[in-house]
Known about the structure:
Blueprint: H1 9-26, H2 34-52, H3 57-64, H4 72-79, E1 80-85, E2 98-105, E3 108-115, H5 121-126, H6 134-149, E4 154-160, H7 167-171, H8 174-187, E5 192-201, H9 202-209, E6 213-217, E7 221-223, H10 227-235, H11 241-248, H12 252-257, E8 263-265, H13 276-292, H14 299-311
Parallel strand pairs: 3-4, 4-5, 5-6, 5-7, 6-8
Antiparallel strand pairs: 1-2, 2-3
Amino acid sequence: MRAYLDFEKPVAELEAxxxxxxxxxxxxxGIAIGDDLTRLEVKAAKALADLYAALTPWQKTLVARHQDxxxxxxxxxxxxxxxxxxxxxxxxxxxxxxxxxxxxxxxRPICLIGQExxxxxxxxxxxxxxxxxxxxxxxxTRLMELADRFNLPVVSLVDTAGAFPGIDxxxxxxxxxxARSTDACLGLGTANVAVIVGEGGSGGAVAIATCNRVLMxxxxxxxxxxxxxxxxxxxxxxxRREDAAVAMKITAQDLLRFGIIDQIISEPxxxxxxxxxxxxxxxxxxxxxxxxxxxxxxxxxxxAARADKFLAIGRKI
Length: 317
């Protein structure tokens, strides 16, 4: 069964009626309901399109967190050929919150790095809900350096509420690991492209998203802190999360206007969770086009273009 968000209740009711009419029509001796079904389907589709055309920042946050939204392994399965994951940071341990390896996108060899939240209870626990510890970011750094050595572009798929805030992570140098991963992104002589496919939270996202091109799915979010955390900090009331979501300008549309991201990837009507394959394929096409922009450029030119991009942020406002 489809999982509906609270604000989708009107659409859920219409689609439930559509399914009820379909069931009636399929029964032996069922009544003729063709015209009624068509009218109701059109009404439900219009209600869905109208709703998603005017989502608030908080509603986009809920969509970005939807349990059925495509995850990192879904993108690998549909887009990447011959994917070979590499594990461990060669310093402490393997962190499954970040999955990384090498494969081919449309025949082009690439390095792929991303957060995996998990699709069920066991997966979420194993991947720590996509919240990486220091060893996850050190693994990412190791693979970026390897990709640079072999002149391979790096693709990052970002989907995390943020880096893991536990005491053990702090004891092992969480901030330093994030900083070094960010520095590795900036120092690459090969093109790198990041896509915010769900949540892009804080330094946990920036650590693998400091790239030549930063793309966002239409209903994803990219933020310095979650709306709940920001509301708690600003107003000491997490219930003001909707106010925080509006104030922080976390949507793809706002971030494109500010020059923080470079492109918005359109999602199917109703969000990527309604038509995952369509969303994944559109993302693959956008990534390939972004990488191709840097074909023929020297390592120094790639680094300079990346530096100019980030130094320009804030100057267009």
